[in-house]
C-alpha cells in the first residue's frame, strides 16, 4: 500500500516551451520538487500529440510557441479532458491570462518565476481539475454543468470568506455535505448562496 501511495505521489508532467534553456530549468525544478517529467516539446502541436500519447497528470504550456501556440494547445488538451493545464506567460502578456482561462487553463505562471511559484500553481491546477471532474460526473448536460460550476465556485468563495477555509477545504465541505444529505453539490451550493443572500438583506 505504501509503495502504491509513494508511486501515486509522483505526478507525471509534460512540458512544452520553445526556449530550450527555460525548458531545461523547468524540468530540473520539477524533478527537484518530486515530479516526473515524462515528455518535452518545443511547439504546441507536438505537445498535444505527446499529451494524447502519454496521458500525463499535468501539462505546462508556454503561450508563445511555433506551429500551434499554447492557447490553442490548451484548448485541445483541456477540451479533450486529457490533463489539467498550467500556462506560462511573460509579464507583458497578462492580457492573455483571461484567454488562457477560456481555453481551459487551470492556473498560470508569470515568467520569470521561482521554484517556490511552481508547486502552488501545479497544486491549484490539479485540485481544480479534480473538482471539475467530480462535478462533471454528477451532471450530464453542458449548460447544467456550467451552471453547477458557477454555483459551486460562488459557494466556495462564501465558505472561504466566512470560515477562513482554503479552496480545497471549501470544495471538500460541499462535497461531503452533499453526500451526507443525499443532495447534489449544486443543491448544497445553492443553499449556501441563498443563506448568504438572506443574511445580506437589510431587516424590514
Radius of gyration: 19 Å
Helix content: 55-70%
Instruction: Give the uncertain stretches in residue-range form.
Output: 1-7
The global form is elongated
Strand content: 5-15%
Oligomer: single chain
Write the element-wise H/E pattern from the N-terminal end onward.
HEHEHEHEHEHHHH
Helix vs. strand class: alpha/beta
Mean pLDDT: 81
- Major β-sheet, in short? 5 strands, parallel
Question: What this model shows, in words?
Answer:
- The protein contains nine helices and five strands.
- The chain is an alpha/beta fold.
- The N terminus is likely disordered.
- Strands 2-1-3-4-5 form a five-stranded parallel beta sheet, sandwiched between helices.
- Helix 3 runs parallel beside helix 4, helix 7 packs across helix 9 and helix 8 crosses helix 9.
Q: What attributes characterize this protein structure?
A:
204 residues; alpha/beta; five-stranded parallel beta sheet; 5 strands; elongated; phosphoprotein; WH-like_DNA-bd_sf; Sig_transdc_resp-reg_antiterm; CheY-like_superfamily; Transcriptional regulator
Briefly summarize what is shown:
The protein has 204 residues and is α/β, with parallel strands linked by helices. The chain has 9 helices and 5 strands, in the order H-E-H-E-H-E-H-E-H-E-H-H-H-H.
Describe how the helices and strands are arranged.
Elements: H1 2-9, E1 12-16, H2 20-32, E2 36-41, H3 44-54, E3 58-62, H4 70-79, E4 85-90, H5 96-102, E5 107-111, H6 115-138, H7 142-163, H8 167-180, H9 185-200
Parallel strand pairs: 1-2, 1-3, 3-4, 4-5
Helix pairs in contact: 3-4, 7-8, 7-9, 8-9
